[in-house]
Specification:
Helix content: 40-55%
CATH topology of the largest domain: Rossmann fold
Strand order of the largest sheet: 2-5-8-1-9
CATH architecture of the largest domain: 3-Layer(aba) Sandwich
Structural class: alpha/beta
CATH superfamily of the largest domain: P-loop containing nucleotide triphosphate hydrolases
Number of helices: 12
Distance between the termini: 42 Å
Shape: globular
Largest sheet: 5 strands, parallel
CATH class of the largest domain: Alpha Beta
Strand content: 15-25%
Number of strands: 11
Number of domains: 2
Length: about 325
Amino acid sequence: MSAVPELDPQQVAELGERIAANVRRAVQVPPPVLQEVLVALMAGGHVLIEDYPGVGKTALARTLARSIDADHARVQCTADVLPADLVGTNVYDQRENRFEFRPGPVFANVVLVDEVNRASPKTQSGLLECMQERQVTVDRQTHELARPFLVLATQNPVEYEGTYPLPEAQLDRFMVRVSLGYPTAEQEARMLADHVRGDRVLEVEPVADLADVLAAQTATASIEGSEPLRRYIVELLGATRADPRIEVGASPRAGLMLFRAAAAHAALHGRDHVLPDDVQRLARPVLAHRLMLAPGAQPEQRDAVIADALGRISAL
């Protein structure tokens, strides 16, 4: 990897726009969703994609990886996938008379974990250390993961037979939850025409490298928020905990994730400080999947709780 350059917020914004434009060449992604994926990338977070099969989730992961010249790996989860299939295992080398660690797919930069809720709870738990500490521990030996490291996990929102719902601890590791949705009729017709040319993802050339992304992450981490803005985030978290529709509200880690996401959103817009608009823009994709509903509440009420909190609490 080349030396990591120093970037200012305007350069981060230009980098984000280059990557976004490159991704749009090969896959149809709604601009708000693509922005949220880039926010996670710049903030060092992970993405949960909850959507139907065949809407471009794999193509998005492949195109994003090619755009930043990153290693990409894909894991198709089934009930018989083991934690070692994700993180790797020690294999005995008879010639060397010793055990040698064989890394799993999580050692790539961009890892697509397809249908993560089809993996057993034991296998799902194998991702916890990877996503939080950026390392794996096998036989008491710790192995550092690649940098940058982004997990894009998918789950089907309508087919639950043979699945294991993600526990709250696992959901809390994802910075944002997004949904690609179906393309418009015009976009879908264009996709059919493009299909004749073959796999569009293979035509994508890098527009950045890993050093650029690491520099953007460093620049994002240095972006500050005022004391009133931090209190605004805390009040939003408190509102989710006090709402009778919610049994368990947003955790302190949710607040940290929201601030980091808002900082990345600010950097992607060329600013060196976080505004309430950044927090409001990312509140739903960052917080909604972290809220545990009270008995009898409907799933769509998560969004309503966040919308009510944003409307009720004054921003600065």
